[in-house]
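Following up on my earlier message about pyridoxal-5'-phosphate. Here are the inputs again, as you asked, copied directly from the submission form:
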Amino acid sequence: MTFDGFETLAIHAGQEADPGTGAVVVPIFQTSTYTQDGVGGLRGGYEYSRTGNPTRAALEECIAALESGTRGLAFASGMAAEDTLLRTIANPRDHVIIPGDAYGGTFRLFSKVLDRWGVKWEAVDQTDSEAVRAAMRPETVAIWTETPTNPLLNITDIEALAAIAHEGDALLVVDNTFASAYLQQPLTLGADVVVHSMTKYMGGHSDVVGGALVVADPELGDRVAFHQNTMGAVCGPFDAWLTLRGIKTLAVRMDRHCANAERIAAELSGHPAVGQVLYPGLPEHPGHDVAKRQMRAFGGMVSFRVRAGEDAALKVCDRTRVFTLAESLGGVESLIEHPGRMTHASTAGSPLEVPADLVRVSVGIESADDLVADLLQALDF
Ligand SMILES: *Cc1c(COP(=O)(O)O)cnc(C)c1O
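Thanks, got it. Here's what our run produced:
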């Protein structure tokens, strides 16, 4: 008999009771080094905490189980995970296809850092799988995708992109931050690497910055682990512990995030002050069918356009009282922001520029009635 339901793994994978003390919860091993019984005689397999730490190892094993991968690796942030992966898989003159509306930090990593090291990159509208196929080159080493995207909630077809990547001997990398491991498991759909900003839903409480990679192929896992140790942007023991604690409730949190977001998307859809609601759970969303196929539910992020324009959108962000005006997402508390002036300000004037009348909400797990009432009063002009 195997006990491998998602909710069970979230609470138990990598988290046996501590053999020394019986502690039920994995302790915070706040230590940099480990005593040796004679030179090279490691007691528990650990020698130095950049290379390995038991609290981090528990988290790494847990996320690997949740994503059905062979190896998980935890980093100091989502961006540290991305940087480590890209320096593992891309050499100068290699080519990577990124989303037309990539996360701003990912776009900056390619355009301002990897570009200087000679890595070629190209932004493509990946909602059109054929456009991705057309962009493949002999030197393409990876297709990097995100689904749903930020802040426009576009959906890309993971199975189709995996097939295109593999035809060209490239890897498919999926940034799974918006869906979380609970709503979508890209490796089971053919992807090779999953990236997480664990700062968001995986941690889930807006109290820690962290990142992760999960890979399907053990040999690639070894190569990434080599770079993780060499570059050293590892997740610290306390951050790993906070993230593990957050992951235990991932499934129940996500169920509520999704239910509240669906309710809000429905309420906003008919509202006279709202022009367009971007939410993959709405049947009219262009990615709805693909999202339905590859996600368990449609997530906790909703974006909408305010009919009266940018000033009105800014006012909505100012007027909410349960939704807190802040960047980031994925925590239990609801957040609201204006992407054009906040998270996506750096895309102004570029092809990635977002509409000025756009508002993005990260729907938390408070009372749905309160959340709806708060948005309705903020939209009452
Ligand atoms: C936040 C985020 C990142 C970056 O993660 P950090 O933990 O902030 O470094 C990457 N991708 C997506 C989709 C994100 O939302």
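One observation from looking it over: The chain has 13 helices and twelve strands. Hope that helps, and feel free to reply on this thread.
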